[in-house]
Amino acid sequence: MKAHDPAPLTEPAEDRRQRKARQTREALAAAAVGLVLERGLGAVTVEAIADRADVTRRTFSRHFGGKEDAALDFTRTDADRINAALRARPASEPPMLAYRRAVEQWLAEPSAPHRRPHMRALLAALDTEPALFAAYERLRVDAQDESVRIIADRLGTDRDQDLRPAVVVGAAAGVLTAALRQWARGGDGHDTDLADLVGQAYDALTGEAVLASAPHIATRE
């Protein structure tokens, strides 16, 4: 195995109460995704989500603040996994490479979005559901903020004084977002592999960075 090859992310041990809470949350999230894709966000109520998951409205409120949060719970979970992988990357790796390897590790997991039903369709719905898109952006910004903290710690710098952590995360996370959106817009019948698309996107960023850093040679016609 190469040093940068993805390694499985290990899950912490759960007790019975934690397992039941996780299963309930997952059932609510799955119900929300299904209903949003069937009816559109505006026609979905919290009560309908709770009913489909066979729990009470009160139980829903213990897990989510609204229907958008429930439908996009995968975003929070995915971001947590990427950030966990980022924290575990070797300290010797440059920050941009560490983020890329963390994403590759996440994409190798069985729970990655391209291996989950309906994720492509849900991401595509961001283009037509403004409230869903706004909630997605809020979750994405929160996740990137944590990534900036992790990169700042890796560099041993103050994120409020040093632009590098925010620049690295803005670029690396932006590449991932662009690849995810392109993958989603391809539709379920499109055979593009998400991991391959993400790899191409990071290669494109690296290539542009090399070109931008090369000395500019002025030529005359």
From TrEMBL:
Cited PANTHER family: HTH-TYPE TRANSCRIPTIONAL REGULATOR RUTR, MYCOFACTOCIN BIOSYNTHESIS TRANSCRIPTIONAL REGULATOR MFTR-RELATED
Region (Disordered): which ranges?
1-23
According to UniProt, the name of this protein is TetR/AcrR family transcriptional regulator
Residue spans binding DNA: 45-64
Q: What is the lineage of its organism?
A: Bacteria, Bacillati, Actinomycetota, Actinomycetes, Kitasatosporales
The HTH tetR-type domain, residue ranges:
22-82
Q: Does the keyword Transferase apply?
A: no
Which superkingdom?
Bacteria
**Which keywords accompany this UniProt record?**
DNA-binding, Transcription, Transcription regulation
Q: Which organism is this protein's natural source?
A: Streptomyces aureus
